[in-house]
Design goal:
Strand content of chain A: 15-25%
Strand content of chain B: 5-15%
Structural class of chain A: alpha+beta
Largest interface: A-B, 28 and 46 residues
Number of helices of chain A: 15
Distance between the termini of chain A: 58 Å
Helix content of chain A: 25-40%
Number of strands of chain B: 11
Largest sheet of chain A: 9 strands, mixed
CATH architecture of one domain in chain B: Alpha-Beta Complex
Number of helices of chain B: 15
Distance between the termini of chain B: 21 Å
Radius of gyration of chain A: 29 Å
Oligomer: heterodimer
Radius of gyration of chain B: 21 Å
Helix content of chain B: 25-40%
CATH topology of one domain in chain B: Amidase signature (AS) enzymes
């Protein structure tokens, strides 16, 4: 749909850092606490209070910066972003403006055609979150919950390098994966710990100048990011093709109606009057601190993906899927190391059966009903020919439902694979006897009937006959 | 054995001795001063809140601990706090209608430190609204009258503290100084007022006017008294990121080190046309006294000092416009009744509860930070600030202290400058520079002109409080200006 049009997207991702206390106060940050119970006088912006920077957020920001190959600023400055809103207690948000802590980073995403694409990260800066306005249940007034006020955020701003909603989602997933690998954010999107604003514009392909952009606010799921951008792109193309002009504005995505709508017009002339916060000293970071943090970096998704491909011989696409999420990668690797099955087989099971079951019940892999050892056991039974892969799937299902261990289920259901040549030969003889016509046809050159015979044997043995042996013996008997 | 007639005349150091010697109890002292405060409230209006009940409790506690042989450095000694230090359970109004009913849920670090040293808080002193003013006339609770002549202003913004000390209602009081708010009223009331190095005293719990300039300090009757209190309130505070972790000397122990060989700089611009001639005479006499005690007087150059007032009136309003945004009627302080909508709540709450001077500065500050003006005003002012700081650094490579007038003139009449903000701002022409550079300064009385006190300002490099206090102490050993009482004070 966009052949004539090029889409240009930049994302601003807000990641809540998983510190125990707030960025400038000692109040706790636990999500879902009773309204206004997690805001101290500092979060409430009382007269005379002063902010004190939580050192942990600096460490986390540096960790992120290193993970995306960015420059860590030796000196960064907190600034005040001034605006009035009831859920912003001080009348200003402490953020970073001219001198952010992280600049000039990058990461790589895989595009539709399978190639890698570099996405620039302009900057990442630290800031405090605001509280929450509650507009329902207070008549003509609004309620304010300041539990979230002062929660540390890392705002990650990309270059306008993204060219489709799909790329935007791939980029967002990659950032999501990185912050979780780094254990600097729980990335929980339902709780708002990971959300993004998208700057979207279109231009005629080949045009150098960027089109007028709109900003889509508060997209809090991968699906919404994709849908909102796609809607917005089509809207902009329609406007321009009908001879109209795009208005630079902030728009909200309405997921119920799958459309974007302009926000109230009062947004238009916001002058935030940024200036350095005189209550906070500049953050100075020296090389030795950076090196100390570097030592705490885990293996990151890209490196792990490469290693999985090299070490375990996985298909690139599988290695990527498995490493997106660290617990999944850890699970896979534990299985791959312990099982006698080939790693690719283990990968197939984790990506296939296991993921399907986890998704269906919306459970994290850490809480999987089938643990590493259980899956290893199952794969080992397939590898040692006790059961076939196909039967394995039934056993997996039974294990998931809690019917017992692999061996118990095999025994209880009599699913043990038949690997005795004479037993298989006997079944084959029976099948050939009752299918004399087909045998004649086969011998007359109808090769395709071989599959039919195999099927009949499997049917006779309820799928328990070892397929390799069936093939082999059947061939011998038919020649 | 209390002499109610004269006990209020004693300095803090003398009172400390009297308490130690058992000549009187803290309760007796407290009761006498509370009565004095009550009886002078109408004539001076120095207090916004008198905390008699708390004072008597603290006095009894101090007497008890003294009887047990312990107690802090200021045990049982009466003090007052400027009403922008937050005091738990007590009104903290900042001289504003906005906070006229605001009871702080916590104590400022300064308040905490004074209390744990055993000081007895008699009350909260009047001040210019949110410390914005140089005459104490912007207070919502009415102007403070100068004890030397009640038709005159005591200066500001710590005018209540200065009047209370000058009027012998309390031996010492805390103040804050953003552009001269301790030193200027001290000069106008014949008291000794010290503003320490920026970062020396914690700002936690001190309601902010201009965060990069605000600094707490003391108004007292002598350098010795100021030293005693400064020692208690100084020190690093983890709750204030701008407070500096630098050891706090025993200021009192350093007082009598003398000033022989001390190099004292004078700045030519300080003696230009703006300075009243008689005041200049008093300052020169004071310089002679220092010289006779062994100080060497030399001229130093502060080439950019003339830019300090304009730079200050960009930086201070900018910070104030942001600091005062929190007063929005949502969580504390004044709230407009029956707001129609959010905008109405904001505009009426702030429109009703801020005074004209506060509004002027919020508007100025908002303007200089606005996009398109930021570079021309705020950024330029910050550059000027750097130049002025560097001027001082250069000067202090040649001299130990800089001496000069605190103000261009003696106390002026109430109402005299209220219609002309610029003239009012120029009253701080000599005091603003040290705030911009974060330097310590003191004002001590050095003469009378027309029966009114003149202030000598001593400014030192960062953390030179000891030198400043020693010089002031030496001067006060040789002169009696600091012992003069206002004629109307009896």
């Amino acid at each position: 749909m966009t052949s004539r049009w090029e889409v240009v997207i930049g994302l601003e991702i807000h990641t809540q850092l998983s510190t125990k206390s707030k960025i400038f106060s000692g109040a706790a940050t636990v999500y879902g606490s009773e309204t206004n119970t997690q805001a101290c006088i500092i979060d409430l912006g009382y007269p005379g209070i002063l902010p004190v920077l939580n050192a942990e957020v600096v460490r986390m920001a540096v960790k992120f910066g290193l993970a995306v190959n960015a420059a860590i600023a030796p000196l960064s400055v907190f600034a005040r972003k001034n605006y009035f809103y009831p859920d912003l207690p001080k009348g200003y948000q402490i953020s970073q403006y001219e001198l952010p802590i992280v600049e000039h980073g990058e990461l790589f995403i895989r595009t539709d055609d399978g190639t890698e694409k570099r996405i620039g990260i302009t900057r990442a800066h630290l800031e405090e979150d605001a509280g929450k306005s509650i507009h329902k249940g207070f008549g003509k007034s609004s309620g304010i919950d300041l539990n979230r006020a002062g929660t540390p955020l890392l705002e990650i701003v990309s270059e306008p390098d993204l060219r489709s909603a799909k790329e935007a989602v791939a980029y967002m997933r990659k950032i999501h994966s990185i912050v979780r690998y780094l254990e600097i954010s729980d990335g929980n999107m339902q709780e708002g710990s990971f959300r993004c604003d998208a700057n979207v514009s279109v231009r005629v392909r080949g045009e150098k100048k960027l089109g007028t952009r709109t900003e889509l606010k508060n997209l809090n799921s991968f699906r919404f990011v994709e849908k909102a951008i796609n809607f917005e792109v089509q809207r902009q193309i329609d406007v321009v093709e009908e001879g109209g002009q795009i208005v630079q504005e902030t728009r909200l995505y309405d997921s119920d109606n799958d459309e974007t709508r302009p926000m109230r017009s009062k947004e238009e002339a916001n002058d935030y009057r940024y200036f350095p916060d005189p209550d906070l000293l500049p953050v100075e970071i020296d090389g030795s601190f950076i090196e100390t943090v570097r030592k705490t970096l885990p293996e990151l998704p890209d490196a792990k993906q490469q290693r999985f491909a090299d070490e375990y011989g996985l298909k690139a696409v599988d290695a990527e899927i498995l490493t997106m999420n660290k617990p999944v990668a850890d699970y896979f690797e534990a299985v791959a190391i312990k099982t006698t099955a080939k790693p690719q087989i283990a990968a197939n099971w984790v990506i296939g059966e296991l993921s399907a079951h986890l998704n269906k019940e919306d459970v994290d892999i850490q809480n999987s009903r089938i643990g590493v050892d259980e899956l290893v056991h199952l794969l080992d039974r397939i590898t040692d020919n006790t059961i076939s892969g196909k039967i394995g799937k039934d056993i997996f299902e039974a294990m998931w439902l809690g019917e017992g261990s692999v061996d118990e289920i095999i025994k209880a259901r009599g699913l043990k694979q038949i690997t005795d040549d004479s037993e298989i030969a006997a079944v084959i003889d029976r099948v050939l006897q009752v299918n004399t016509l087909q045998v004649a046809d086969y011998k007359a050159g109808k090769d395709k009937l071989f599959g039919y015979f195999v099927g009949q044997v499997m049917k006779e043995t309820s799928g328990k006959a070892n397929p390799t042996q069936v093939n082999q013996i059947l061939k011998e008997k038919l020649t | 054995m209390v002499s109610g007639e004269t006990i209020h005349r004693q300095t803090l150091a003398e009172l400390a001795q009297g308490l130690s010697a058992g000549e009187f109890t803290s309760r007796e002292l407290t009761e006498i001063l509370l009565r004095r405060i009550e009886s002078h409230q109408e004539s001076y209006n120095a207090f916004i809140t008198i905390t008699a009940e708390i004072a008597l409790q603290q006095a009894d506690k101090a007497d008890k601990s003294r009887a047990n042989g312990d107690g802090g450095y200021l045990n049982g000694l009466p003090i007052a706090h400027k009403d922008l230090f937050c005091t738990k359970g007590v009104l903290t109004t900042c001289g504003s209608r906005m906070l006229q009913n605001f009871v702080s849920p916590y104590d400022a670090t300064v308040v905490e430190k004074m209390a744990s040293a055993g000081a007895v808080m008699l009350g909260k002193t009047n001040m210019d609204e949110f410390a914005m003013g140089s005459s104490n006339e912007t207070s919502y609770f009415g102007p403070v009258m100068n004890p030397w002549n009640t038709s005159l202003s005591p200066g500001g913004s710590s005018g209540g503290s200065a009047a209370a000390v000058a009027g012998r209602l309390v031996p010492v009081a805390t103040g804050t100084d953003t552009g001269g708010s301790i030193r200027q009223p001290a000069a106008m009331t014949g008291t000794t007022g010290i503003k320490p190095t920026y970062g020396r005293v914690s700002r936690f719990g001190m309601v902010a006017f201009a965060s990069s300039l605000d600094q707490g300090g003391v108004i007292a009757r002598s350098a010795e008294d100021a030293a005693m209190v400064l020692e208690v309130i100084s020190g690093h505070d983890r709750r204030d990121s701008t407070s500096i972790d630098h050891p706090v000397p025993r200021y009192v122990d350093g007082l009598s080190r003398g000033i022989k060989g001390l190099k004292v700089g004078i700045v030519r611009q300080h003696f230009d046309e703006g300075l009243d001639e008689s005041c200049a005479g008093a300052i020169n006499l004071a310089l002679n006294t220092l010289s006779e005690s062994g100080a060497k007087i030399v001229e130093v150059d502060l080439p950019h000092i003339d830019l300090s007032v304009p730079a200050y009136y960009v930086v201070a309003p900018a910070e104030c416009s942001s600091n005062l945004s929190r007063f929005d009627g949502v969580r504390f302080g004044h709230r407009a009744t029956k707001p129609q909508d959010l905008h109405d709540l904001y505009s009426r709450t702030r429109g009703e509860a801020f005074g004209a001077e506060v509004k002027r500065r919020i508007m100025t500050g908002t303007y200089v930070l606005s996009s398109g003006y930021y570079d021309a005003y705020y950024l330029k002012a910050q550059k000027v600030r750097q130049l002025i700081s560097q001027d001082f650094v250069n000067a202090f490579s040649e001299v130990d202290l800089i001496a000069g007038p605190t103000t261009p003139n003696t106390a002026f009449s109430l109402g005299e400058k209220t219609d002309d903000p610029i003239t009012m701002y120029l009253n701080d022409i000599y005091t603003i520079g040290p705030n911009l550079a974060g330097l310590p300064g003191i004002s001590i009385p050095c003469g009378l002109v027309g029966g009114l006190p003149v202030g000598l300002q001593l400014v030192g490099p960062h953390f030179a409080e000891e030198t400043i206090l020693a010089c002031a102490y030496q001067y006060q050993q040789l002169t009696d200006w600091h012992r003069l009482e206002p004629g109307v004070a009896s």
